[in-house]
Amino acid sequence: MFSPQGPSLGELCVQALSSVERGYDLLAPKFDHTPFRTPESILGATAHALSELGPFNHGLDVCCGTGAGMLVLRSLCEGRITGVDFSAGMLGWARSAHPDATWVRADARALPFAEHFDLAVTFGALGHFLPTERPALFEGVYRALRPGGLFAFPIGAPAPLTSVSYWATLGFDLAMRVRNAVWRPPFVMYYRTGPLSAVRDDLTAAGFTATAAALTVLGRHRDGSPRYWLILARKPADQH
């Protein structure tokens, strides 16, 4: 599961018993050597799909981590690209990898931007927000985008009930719920709290026009359904 350069079991245990912020501060030096980093296949599929909708000027990666999403923004944006995250450790590694980008430390539930970006993306971060927190996240991204701006992110489709993935994610979420019930501070990371329909409803409530495009290049489940969708949430061009 992990490369030799990745974290040890002991390190993962310490991180898992920390807060989300502290856990990622500790994980940052080895994060790119774990399965938690967004795979190149997903980054590439997202960039390819968005290339037909650009070019864009300024770009924002929300919950940027060590900066994997910068590879997508750099290929699509003609202006400045910015990453925002609340982990100082993750931002430090991102800054070293992409010194030409702008880096901002902030809570994604209270983004400090107003109508500055043409494209916003996020990768693998929705599981860190409880359903009650998604509205604040989406409303912040909405404010950060210029009229007509686009918020895009890949989201995994539900795995079939008969698949190993279904039971693995169910087991992980149950384990995290038990951990958070008996240990403080909480570590919010769930795989099954953001179904496609609920995410689209929250985006619509924030003011976006939300659609979903199948990322079929990333494969299909046995029943023929796509494994991943690309959410495309557009801020209306006319705000009046």
TrEMBL record:
Keywords: Methyltransferase, Transferase. GO terms for biological process: methylation. This is Class I SAM-dependent methyltransferase. InterPro entries: Methyltransf_25, SAM-dependent_MTases_sf. Its EC number is 2.1.-.-. The keyword Transferase applies. One of its GO terms (molecular function) is methyltransferase activity. PANTHER family: TRANS-ACONITATE 2-METHYLTRANSFERASE, TRANS-ACONITATE 2-METHYLTRANSFERASE-RELATED. CDD domains: AdoMet_MTases (cd02440). Gene3D superfamilies: Vaccinia Virus protein VP39 (3.40.50.150). The keyword Methyltransferase applies. Residues 60-149 form the Methyltransferase domain. SUPFAM superfamilies: S-adenosyl-L-methionine-dependent methyltransferases (SSF53335).
